[in-house]
Amino acid sequence: MSRIEFDGDRCEGHGLCEQTAPEVYRLDDDAELELLVDEVPPELHAKAEAGARVCPVAALRVVSESEGAQ
Ligand code: SF4
């Protein structure tokens, strides 16, 4: 299982992540990013990573739980 690290200070609300992976990322009416999943299920992992890759300000990172430990 993996999870998403989101740096809200960097996010500029471009919405490319949402366009790429609307199952995972959603911009609310104030252009604030909302993560639709706490933990990324295996079937959404590739999409979550694709959405993180297109972010122009690198505000998103998908990390596997084992990496993040310690
Ligand atoms: S693509 Fe990056 S800057 Fe744009 S809304 Fe998503 S996290 Fe924010």
Automatic annotation (TrEMBL):
Tell me the InterPro entries matching this sequence: 4Fe4S_Fe-S-bd, Fe-S_cluster_ET
Using the record's annotation, list all stretches that form the 4Fe-4S ferredoxin-type domain.
2-30
Q: Which cofactor does it need?
A: [3Fe-4S] cluster
- Annotated Gene Ontology MF terms? 3 iron, 4 sulfur cluster binding; metal ion binding
Q: Which UniProt keywords apply?
A: 3Fe-4S, Electron transport, Iron, Iron-sulfur, Metal-binding, Transport
- Could you tell me what this protein is called? Ferredoxin
Keyword NAD in record:
no
Q: Which organism is it from?
A: Haloactinomyces albus
